[in-house]
């Protein structure tokens, strides 16, 4: 993954372009996630103990399977990018956002209000809908709307659950406890916000849509991402323990094929 810090951060037009590509992918595969889900997945990938390459996580995250851009897959359920240009555009925007998030998670910040801190690209859907004209709200009806930060957290845990070997707890009980505590903060964000709404995160003067408890939980989840990235980076990729080849017994035939007993040949 390219982490060239010279790459410019994404602007509103860039995020709109990502949404348009995902919408187009969704026209060929209904399970393609929204960008907020991808944003959470990206954060988890940046925390994962091993650097997982795009050709490993895109097929699962976007449902592209083994399909090639512009070419249908043998699996009818796979989703395909319209063409190579669309895939290249998505990868370019993804890489720029990846670089931006990696820089934020690597920065030394004292508060999440710091402009250098990690700010997930998420939306207060309930606040946005509550601010719509009555006629437009009526069209949505009783459709269940995600809580603030919920889709982001689900995207994060999607990576954790689908790459279990890379997220397996270390033997050190203290470190394992730290990881478990951090993950729990994110898991709690995957649940609904049942607290009393006190603030709107969509607009300053919008109707309340997010509870104080949710805001506190969201802040805890972001700090948890910082902790997880630092812990896994300090541990490094998992390594398989070296397995010692079983040595033949003294009276067994020698492994070299000489026909002699091991004790009379290479075991002498």
List keywords for this structure.
mainly alpha, 2 strands, globular
Task: Give a structural overview.
Helices cover 47% and strands 2% of the residues. It is mainly α. Helix 2 packs across helix 7 (150-162). The radius of gyration is 24 Å and the shape is globular. The chain starts with 11 loop residues before the first helix and ends in a 33-residue tail after the last helix.
Order of helices and strands: HHHHHHHHEEH
Outline the biggest β-sheet: 2 strands, antiparallel
| Computed structural class | mainly alpha
- Spatial extent as radius of gyration: 24 Å
Query: What is the percent of helical residues?
Result: 40-55%
Estimated share of beta-strand residues: under 5%
Spatial order of strands in the largest sheet: 1-2
The number of strands is 2
Give the termini distance in whole angstroms: 52 Å
Low-confidence stretches: none
**Number of distinct helices:** 9
Kindly state the mean pLDDT as a whole number?
88
Concise account of the structure shown:
By secondary structure, the protein is an all-alpha fold.
């Amino acid at each position: 993954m390219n982490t060239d810090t010279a790459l410019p951060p994404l602007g509103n037009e860039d995020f709109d372009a990502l949404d348009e590509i995902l919408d187009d992918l969704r026209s060929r595969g209904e399970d393609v996630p929204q960008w907020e889900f991808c944003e959470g997945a990206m954060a988890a990938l940046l925390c994962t103990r091993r650097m997982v390459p795009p050709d490993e996580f895109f097929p699962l995250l976007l449902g592209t399977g083994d399909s090639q851009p512009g070419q249908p897959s043998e699996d009818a359920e796979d989703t395909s990018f319209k063409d190579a240009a669309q895939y290249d555009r998505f990868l370019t925007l993804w890489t720029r956002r990846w670089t931006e998030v990696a820089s934020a998670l690597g920065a030394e910040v004292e508060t999440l209000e710091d402009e250098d801190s990690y700010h997930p690209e998420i939306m207060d859907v309930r606040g946005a809908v509550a601010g719509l004209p009555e006629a437009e709200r009526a069209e949505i009806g009783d459709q269940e709307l995600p809580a603030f930060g919920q889709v982001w957290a689900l995207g994060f845990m999607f990576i954790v659950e689908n790459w279990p070997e890379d997220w397996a707890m270390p033997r050190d009980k203290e470190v394992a406890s730290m990881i478990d505590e951090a993950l729990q903060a994110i898991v709690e964000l995957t649940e609904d916000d049942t607290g009393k709404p006190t603030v709107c995160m969509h607009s300053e003067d919008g109707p309340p849509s997010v509870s104080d408890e949710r805001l506190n939980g969201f802040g805890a989840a972001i700090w948890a991402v910082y902790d997880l990235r630092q812990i896994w980076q300090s541990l490094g990729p998992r390594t398989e323990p070296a397995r010692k080849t079983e040595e033949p017994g003294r009276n067994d035939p020698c492994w070299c094929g000489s026909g002699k007993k091991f004790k009379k040949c290479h075991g002498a």
